[in-house]
Structure formats: C-alpha cells, structure tokens
Amino acid sequence: MARPEWVGLLVVAGLAIAFSACGSSRPKVAPVTPPTPTATPAPSVPASPAPTPPPAAPAVVEVLPEAFESARFIVTFARSGDTARDLAARYLGDPDKAWMVEDYARAQTFAAGQEVVIPKVEWNPPGVYPSGYQVVPVLVYHNIASQRKGRLTIAASSFAEQMRYLQAEGYHAVRLDAFLAYLHQRRQLPRKSVVIVFDDGHKGFLQHALPVLKELGFAAALFVVTDQIPRRDSAAFLSWDDLRALTADGVEVYAHSKTHQDLRRASGEAEARYVRRMQMELGLPLELLRKELPGRDGRLEAIAYPFGEWDGRLLESVRQYGYVAGLTVRRQGNPAFVPLLRVNRNRIYADWTIEDFKKNLATFQA
Question: What b/e string do you get for 198-231 counting C-beta neighbours within 10 Å, with b at 16 or more?
Fold first, then answer.
C-alpha cells in the first residue's frame, strides 16, 4: 500500500496535465477591434440670411445763405445771366449803383456761381490807389446847333456821336454837385466818370443837347451869364422860365458871372472900383439864382470864370462871396486833390473828330 503523501502528489500532477491538454486544444480567437463610431450627421437646418444693417441716418446738408454780409461788404454768388446792374438792384436796392459792383469786381457780367464781393459803402472816396489816382475830366460845351458854326457851336450830330461814344465805353456822366463832393473827398465817383457842362446859357442846349442827354441818362450842368437871361422866351438864350423847367428836370444851374467880362483886376483899376465890380459880377448872380430858382439852400456853389481866366486877387473875391469851386479852361483831368478854385475843364471844339474827342477822356493817372 502506497504512502498517503505520494498519493496526493500523483493526484495533483494528473490534474495539472489534464488542464494543460485542454488549454492547447481550444481555437485561437482573434481579438476584436471595436468599430470606430461613425458621427451621426446633424439634421439639415436652412442657413439664415445675413442680418440687414439698420438704415443709415440721412446726411445733414448745411443750407448756406444766399449771401454773407458784414457792415461794409456783401459776398454772394452770381446767378446765371447776372450783370452788375442786377446785383446792385438785388443787394443794394438801386440798379444805378451798378458802378460800385463793376469798380470793385472789375467786371460788368458774371458767370453762374461766380463769387462776387459787393461793397455796401464807398470804399475809396479820393480815388487813390497804389498804382496811381483817379482823375475826372470836365467837358465844357458852348452852343449846339443843327449845323456847326465857328469853333464853339457844335453840330448836333457830332454832339450825339460823342455822347453815344461815352455810353458805349462805359463812362458815367455825373452831376456837378456829386463832382464837388468828390473834390471835398466826401463822395466816391465811378472810376470812369466825366462831368458835362455848358457855358453861357444858349437855347441850343434845350433844343439839341437835352434830348440826347435824357435818352442816355446823362447829367449836365449849365453856367449862365445872368445879363443874357431874357425875361421872355428867346430864340438865342434860355429864359428864366426855361431854367426853372430845366431845374425841375434835374439840370443844375450855376453862375458864369453877370456880364461875361474878364474878372481879373485890370491894370490901373482902383481897388475900390474892383471891389464894386466883383460885387456885381460875383455877388449879384448868386442873388438872382437863389431868387429865381428855388431849392438852392445848402448847395455848394461854383463859378466858371469867363474865358477861364483867373489870378490870385480874383480867387480871394470868389472865396469871399461863398463859392467853393472855380472852373478854368485848363485842359486836364481833376484828381480829388485839385485846388478847388482852379478846377480844370476841357473845352470841346466844333471841328474835332471823334479821335480828337477821345484824347480828352483820361480817367486815371499812373
């Protein structure tokens, strides 16, 4: 009989062999790799349109005024077809102030949208500029008739030609009282100004000169010899009734002495006699004009010397009787600083051509 401890060892060995055989006979199974999970597609959702931006705020457009204005100037923009006269009427209230627009802008017409500076007040009464100064010619006529006669009676056709030339070239025929204010540097005149005067008081002014002057809008002044003014209608000289009517029509009347004698003191003439003669030649005409032609209070008085002659003694008398200006026949224009009792005048002759006439129209001295 075997020993018990050997029996246990044999049993254990037998069990080990049995389990080993069983293990080697089972088929080998490849390891299973788990499938890669497939993503489930998301349900299709329609794309949303891009958000619409809020509407832009409307642009703020600044509405500019038609004109910019200061105490002395207006700045504006011309409209289509505007002229200096249009702008003067619109902004200065007077189309006759077109010269202010013209002289400041140096133009008469303007393009649409063009900037224009308009002075509201006179900006240069003495007419003095860096390049020179303004001069004003005084054109003196005597008689006008249907036909030329001598050197001082001009044909009506020649006079009309001269006046129309002035208008075509842009000259302004200004009143004598405006010219006197300019000589006192109280008033500015258009840059191309002339003064038209007539000596002696001939009837031809009324018959031949006045219709042309009125047609063109030109001013004129008369210097009358009071001894030649008839009380009744005359074919030769203007009567007091004529002068009253002309004054009412805007024509100015001034003194040309009483008798048209030379007003200088004659050689050998006593001082007392000369004083009496000046009272008649200078004082009496003013008295008559003030009596016969109302509305002269406060006006500046001027006298045209007969033959244009003067001397220092005469100027003393002229000043004594209240005249502020005396007119000669020296052929030259007048700056604002011309001596007031020696104002220049250009005598116009009947035998002149239009080219001769043009030589007397200089309005600027460099």
Answer: bbbbbbbbbebbbebbeeeebbbbbbbbbbbbbe
Residue 91 near residue 118, CB atoms below 8 Å = yes
| Cα separation values, 56 from 53, 60, 63, 71, 355, Å | 8, 12, 21, 42, 71
**234 closest CA partner among 201, 267, 277, 282:** 201
Q: How does pLDDT run along the chain (366 residues), one tens digit per residue? A: 444 443 343 333 443 334 444 444 444 444 545 555 555 555 565 566 667 777 777 776 666 688 999 999 999 999 999 999 999 999 999 999 999 999 999 999 999 999 999 999 999 999 999 999 999 999 999 999 999 999 999 999 999 999 999 999 999 999 999 999 999 999 999 999 999 999 999 999 999 999 999 999 999 999 999 999 998 888 999 999 999 999 999 999 999 999 999 999 999 999 999 999 999 999 999 999 999 998 888 899 999 999 999 999 999 999 999 999 999 999 999 999 999 999 999 999 999 999 999 999 999 999
CB 140, CB 197: distance < 8 Å: yes
Distances (CA, A) of 131 to 127, 166, 366: 11, 24, 6
Distance CA 88, CA 81 (A): 14
SS3 content of the chain, % helix, strand, coil (to 5): 35, 15, 50
Structure tokens at 240: 């007091």
CB contact set of 205 (below 8 Å; sequence gap of 6+): 143, 144, 198, 220, 222, 238
